[in-house]
Design a protein that fits this description.
10-stranded antiparallel sheet; single chain; 14-stranded antiparallel sheet
C-alpha cells in the first residue's frame, strides 16, 4: 500500500483547489511516472479519511473496528428526493456522473464528475470532542474527481479537489426537495426534474444540465447491492440510467456547446468489498434501442469472478431486471498499457447478456483515459468513454457508455 505518500499530501492541508492533468498519447509528465492503485466505490476516500483523522500511521488507524457505523444488511427502502442526499452514518458515499456528449458538428467528448464523502470516525466519537470544538473539526471529508475526454483531440484531462466537511467548504445541503452536493467550487444540484453539474479546473470546465428520461433504478434487491458473501458486504445503490444532457464544455480557450446522454450513480456503504476481491470492472451502457445496462465484475485475487457480481437490465420505459453473475459473460478482446503507470488494462470486451439476448462489443473511445490522482490520494484507475456495437434480440444495435477499471495498478484493499 502506498500510504506514506498519501498521508504526506494531506498533512500539507485539507483544502485544495482543483489541479489538472492531461493525458495525450505518449506525452508523460515526469511527476506522473508512478504506479499506485485502488479506487471506485470510494477506495480513494479511505486514504483521505484516515490521513485526515490523525497523524498516526496508516496501519494503526486501519486496524480500528467498524463498530459504531451504520451497516447495510438488507433492502434499503430508499425514498426520493430524501435519499438523493447524504447518509452520514455510513462510512463511504459517492455521487457519480459520466456521459457522452457531442457538438452540432459531431465532435465527441466524454466526461466524469464525482464527489465522494468519507466519515472518519463513528458517530459516538462526537462524545469525545471538547465542549467548544473548533469550527474546523469534522467527521466528514469530501473530494472530487472531474475529467473530460476530448476524443477528436486525442486527450484526456482530469482534475481533483478536496475539502473538510466544515466551514461551508464542502458538504450536502437539502431543502424543499432539492439536494446540493459540493466540494470547494464544484457542485452537483439535484432537483425533481433537473441535475445541474458545475466544475471549473485550470484547463477545463463543465456546466451541464441533465434531465432524467427514466426514473431511478434500484439495483440488486430493492437497492441492496451485494459485494461479497456476508450480508454486510453490500451497499445501497441506485442510478439514473439515462439523463438527457445539454450545456457547455470548455477546454483551454475553446468553448463547446454540447448535448448527449449521461448516467448517474449514487451509492453508500460501510463495509462493501469482501476480502480477497482485488478489483472490479464496471460497465454502464446506453443502447440506441433505449435499453440501458449496468454490470460489474468483482475480480478475486485467484483470478476468478466472485458470484456476487451482478447488474441491471433497464428497458426503454424504465423497467429493470436484476442480473446475477450467471446471466452475463464478459470476455476481454484487447489490452492497453499505460505509459504513465505501466499498468495494463483491458481495452475491448465481448459482452453477452442472456436475459436480453444482447451480444455486443465494447471498446474504448480513447485508449488513455487513466487517472492518477496524486494531488488527492495517489491512486490510479481507468475510467473512460466507450463505444458499443452488436445485436439485441437479433437486431443491430449501437451505443455509448462508460467503463471503470480498478485494481489493475494494485489490489483494492481499502474497502475490505
Amino acid at each position: 500500500m502506498r500510504t506514506k505518500r498519501s498521508i504526506a499530501v494531506f498533512r500539507n492541508g485539507f483544502e485544495s483547489g482543483p489541479t489538472t492533468k492531461v493525458s495525450r498519447g505518449d506525452e508523460v509528465p515526469p511527476e506522473n511516472k508512478r504506479t499506485s492503485g485502488k479506487l471506485r466505490f470510494c477506495v480513494i476516500l479511505l486514504y483521505v479519511a484516515l490521513s485526515a483523522a490523525s497523524n498516526s500511521n496508516f496501519e494503526a488507524v486501519a486496524q480500528q473496528s467498524d463498530a459504531g457505523y451504520l451497516a447495510v444488511t438488507g433492502p434499503c427502502q430508499l425514498q426520493f428526493p430524501t435519499d438523493h442526499g447524504a447518509h452520514p452514518g455510513y462510512r463511504t458515499e459517492w455521487w457519480y456522473y459520466t456521459g457522452n456528449l457531442q457538438t452540432d458538428r459531431e465532435r465527441s467528448f466524454g466526461f466524469q464528475l464525482t464527489i465522494f464523502r468519507r466519515r472518519i470516525s463513528p458517530p459516538d466519537a462526537l462524545k469525545t470532542w471538547p465542549d467548544s470544538a473548533s469550527r474546523w473539526r469534522t467527521q466528514q471529508i469530501y473530494l472530487g474527481h472531474a475529467a473530460v475526454t476530448d476524443i477528436a483531440g486525442g486527450r484526456h484531462i482530469f482534475a481533483e479537489s478536496i475539502a473538510r466537511g466544515a466551514l461551508d467548504l464542502a458538504g450536502v445541503r437539502q431543502s424543499d426537495g432539492r439536494t446540493t452536493v459540493f466540494v470547494n467550487k464544484w457542485s452537483i444540484d439535484i432537483r425533481p426534474d433537473l441535475h445541474r453539474l458545475q466544475a471549473t479546473a485550470p484547463d477545463f470546465s463543465l456546466d451541464l444540465e441533465l434531465h432524467p428520461v427514466k426514473p431511478p433504478v434500484l439495483h440488486g434487491d430493492r437497492g441492496y447491492s451485494r459485494k461479497g458473501d456476508a450480508a454486510e458486504r453490500a451497499s445501497c445503490y441506485y442510478s439514473f440510467s439515462r439523463l438527457q444532457t445539454a450545456g457547455r464544455v470548455q477546454i483551454g480557450e475553446m468553448l463547446f456547446e454540447v448535448s448527449g446522454s449521461s448516467w448517474m450513480d449514487h451509492e453508500f456503504s460501510t463495509a462493501s468489498l469482501q476480502p480477497g476481491i482485488g478489483g472490479w470492472d464496471w460497465f454502464s451502457l446506453q443502447l440506441d434501442d433505449g435499453t440501458d445496462v449496468m454490470i460489474y465484475l468483482l475480480r478475486q485475487d485467484d483470478g476468478n469472478v466472485h458470484p456476487a457480481s451482478s447488474g441491471s437490465l433497464i428497458d426503454s420505459g424504465g423497467g429493470s431486471i436484476h442480473l446475477t453473475a450467471s446471466d452475463f459473460t464478459v470476455g476481454v478482446l484487447d489490452h492497453w498499457e499505460s505509459p504513465q503507470s505501466e499498468t495494463t488494462y483491458p481495452a475491448a470486451w465481448a459482452v453477452r447478456i442472456d436475459r436480453g439476448a444482447i451480444d455486443i462489443t465494447v471498446g474504448a473511445s480513447l485508449a488513455d483515459q487513466e487517472l492518477q490522482t496524486a494531488a488527492t490520494t495517489g491512486v490510479t484507475y481507468w475510467e473512460g468513454s466507450v463505444d458499443v456495437s452488436g445485436t439485441a434480440k437479433g437486431r443491430p444495435v449501437a451505443g455509448k457508455g462508460y467503463v471503470e477499471l480498478t485494481g489493475y495498478a494494485g489490489a483494492v484493499e481499502a474497502l475490505q
